[in-house]
Amino acid sequence: MSESLSVTARLVPFEPLSCSLEFDAKVEFEGMNLKIQYGMRGDCHSILFPKLSPMPKRIPGLWEHTCFEAFFTWKKNSVYWELNLSPSGDWNLYFFKGYRQGQVEEKRVVSLIQQQTQSCSKEWIQTVEIDIRSLFGEEDKVESGSSIWIGLSAVIEQLNQTKTYWAIRHTQSRPDFHSPDNFCLELSLP
């Protein structure tokens, strides 16, 4: 896709669904804040949403239940980050040295800005902002106009505890959000 400051994409399930659900995401930069908005419309009442956390915090393993995910890197580099965001407001950010290698919790980001909106049982919108300046060192030479490659995905757990796997595209024989082929949105830093 072409370079831009804002991109909207539709997420598709890995396997066909038994319910009616549409899922999209918008990604944009506001300064050096990476802003992602996930939106689901349709049979949202069939989704198992965790309760809102009164004090959202970092929690490992959020992908084991309903969880929105964003993977990003620059210049299709081998290192990348994985952002996990629960509808509860809990979150985590991981750094990887390569494809599924060297996973560590990314400590340079200590908080996120989040907002959730639910309209009846037919719509759910969750927005997150993350300041990415702290993730890049001088040696990375990340500057205005540099490309950031992003893959958006989600694990959606239904009330019957069946999980569905959503992404902009699925390039493997099984869901694999870490695949570099899925980092298909390109945005330029402002």
Task: Name some characteristics of this structure.
Immunoglobulin-like, 190 residues, mainly beta, 12-stranded antiparallel β-sheet
Describe the structure.
With 190 residues, the protein is an all-beta fold. It has a single domain (6-188), classed as Sandwich (Immunoglobulin-like). Helices cover 0% and strands 45% of the residues. It is built from no helices and twelve strands. Strands 1, 2, 3, 4, 5, 6, 7, 8, 9, 10, 11 and 12 form a twelve-stranded antiparallel β-sheet that branches. A hairpin with a 5-residue loop joins strand 10 and strand 11. The radius of gyration is 16 Å and the shape is globular. The two termini are 17 Å apart. The mean pLDDT is 87.
In short:
The protein has strands at residues 6-13, 21-30, 33-42, 67-74, 80-85, 91-96, 104-105, 113-119, 123-131, 147-157, 163-167, 185-188.
Query: Can you summarize the main beta sheet?
Result: 12 strands, antiparallel
Determine the oligomeric state from the structure.
Answer: single chain
CATH architecture verdict: Sandwich
Mind telling me the C-alpha Rg?
16 Å
Give the helix level as a range of percent: under 10%
